[in-house]
Amino acid sequence: MTKVSMTVNGKAVSAEAEGRTLLSAFLRDGLGLTGTHIGCDTSQCGACVVHVDGKAVKSCAVFAMDVAGSEVRTIEGMANADGSLSVLQQAFQDNHGLQCGFCTPGMVMASAALLAENPKPTEAEVRHHLEGNICRCTGYHNIVKAVLAASGQDVPAVAAE
């Protein structure tokens, strides 16, 4: 076991981890941040997306030790300082961009990364960017609407397929 230190959601943290401990397990088991979901453990579903040094990564495909010293942001760090929902989180709620909620943390984190890179994406760009995130409930339409709404754009009544 080795002590792994990083900054998570603006706070310096340390916990013991084996060399093979995945970042997703480190966050959930080592730090108690269970908002990062583990869906497939093979980086196929996107439920575990977090930001590492500002970039979206699938935390089930990264060893915790490999991001030691990094800045990590999880879904728990997305809310506003006063605890209210961020613009993106509120857009997901307002546009019914979730159903069972299992994929939602990964969708929000992936969408936040997109909006950081491209503040006004087209519908096609949103759909393309979220291809690595699986949702079994929504059909993606309302997720796309939520991302467009969060970007300040008009939300189409019917999205193109």
Labels describing this entry:
161 residues; alpha+beta; 5 strands; 29% helix
Briefly say what this structure is.
The protein is an alpha+beta fold. Helix content is about 30%, strand content about 15%. Helix 2 runs antiparallel to helix 5.
User: What can be said about the biggest beta sheet?
Assistant: 5 strands, mixed
Number of strands: 5
Quote the distance from N terminus to C terminus: 49 Å
Q: What would the average pLDDT be, to the nearest integer?
A: 94
Shape: globular
Strand order, biggest sheet? 2-1-5-3-4
- Which residue ranges are poorly predicted, with pLDDT under 50 across at least 5 consecutive positions? none
**Percentage of residues in helical conformation:** 25-40%
Strand content: 15-25%
One letter per element, helices H and strands E, the order comes to: EEHEEEHHHH
In DSSP terms (H or I, runs of 4 or more residues), the helix count works out at 5
Could you tell me the radius of gyration in angstroms? 16 Å
Structural class: alpha+beta
Notes on the protein architecture:
This protein has 161 residues and is an alpha+beta fold. The chain has helices spanning 23-30, 87-94, 104-117, 123-129, 141-150; strands spanning 2-8, 11-17, 49-52, 55-58, 71-73. The chain has a 5-stranded mixed β-sheet, sandwiched between helices. Strand 3 (49-52) and strand 4 (55-58) form a beta hairpin. Helix 2 runs antiparallel to helix 5. The chain starts with a strand and ends in an 11-residue tail after the last helix. The mean pLDDT is 94.
